[in-house]
Amino acid sequence: MSFKFCIKFFLVTVLLTMVSCASRKDIVYLQNVETVGNQSDALNYEPKLQNDDLLSIIVSADQPELTIPFNMPQIQGNYQINENQDGIKTYLIDAYGFIEFPVVGKIKLAGLSRSEAVTKLQTAVKEYITNPTINLRILNYKVSVLGEVLKPGTIKINSERITLLEAISQAGDLTIYGKRDNILVVRESNGKMTYNRVDITKADFINSPFYYLSQNDVVMVEPNKTRVNSSAVGPNVTTVISALSLLGTILIILTR
Q1: Could you give the domains of the chain?
Q2: Which of 63, 73, 75, 138 shows the greatest Cβ crowding within 10 Å of its Cβ?
């Protein structure tokens, strides 16, 4: 093996290494995650109740007959949320943040966490029942993921808690053309729409308010430059040109 060939082989190896390093920086999630400490606060995350949330609220107590006025059945028809919840009375938080709760009347829940809402309801019901227990669930908890993912659409959540990475996973993950360092999270906060950019290649986004998604959040994955260019000249032309350019560079090095 000649010295000249070894030099050429070395140059090609270096070139390919540089290409692979550049692509890793743009694609890999949670880089340097080992530098981020354990997130104990994540275990205590609770969503804030919002306008248009649909709630299931069930009151229980040592004397079940006293809870009947608070657990009224759905009046009309065979109301159905899902196959496990037939005929359950539900409460829609109105545009002003209130629900109309039996016996108690209007009570504002929007802006409260789930535990805060439970405490507020318990305080109101205690005027009529001793030591009531409140079971509260958000029935229409959902987020939407759009853009450069394999399965864009709306995701319904049963647990009332989902991370941005879990939502992306349920959408089939980002395509190779999705910009991982500039994901847009559209969120309604205190009646106003906010637009927030998230870089999921950086592990410190775990500490951001957008690691956990709120109900009705919209996640939008922007296409990278390759995808934008290919939309004008065809889906595969840009990739082919890039491959030919790299191949040409390698051939020039080898034939010198």
Answers
A1: 29-43+141-226 (3.10.560.10), 54-138 (3.30.1950.10)
A2: 138
Contact 208, 221 (CB under 8 A): no
Find, among 156, 144, 67, 57, the residue nearest to 101 by Cα: 57
Distance (Å, whole) CA 230 – CA 239:
8
Q: How many residues appear in the chain?
A: 256
| 3-state SS track over the chain | CCHHHHHHHHHHHHHHHHHHHHHHHHHCCCECHHHCCCCHHHHHCCCECCCCCEEEEEEECCCHHHHHHHCCCCCCCCCEEECCEECCCEEECCCCCEEEECCCEEEECCCCEHHHHHHHHHHHHCCCCCCCEEEEEECCCEEEEEECECCCEEEECCCCCEEHHHHHHHCCCECCCECCCCEEEEEEECCEEEEEEECCCEHHHHHCCCCEECCCCEEEECECHHHHHHHHHCCCHHHHHHHHHHHHHHHHHHHC
- Provide the percentage of residues in the chain whose pLDDT is more than 70: 71
Structure tokens at 85: 């919840």
How is residue 30 written in tokens?
A: 């949670």
Work out the pLDDT band at 118, boundaries 50, 70, 90.
very high
The reported pTM is 0.71
C-alpha 178/C-alpha 199 separation (Å) is: 12
Q: Is the pLDDT of residue 107 over 80?
A: yes
Amino acid (1-letter code) at residue 21 = C
> What radius of gyration, in Å, describes the C-alpha atoms of the chain?
27
Angstrom CA distances, 83 to 78, 79, 80, stand at 12, 11, 7
Instruction: Calculate ∠ Cα 212-153-161, nearest 5°.
Output: 25
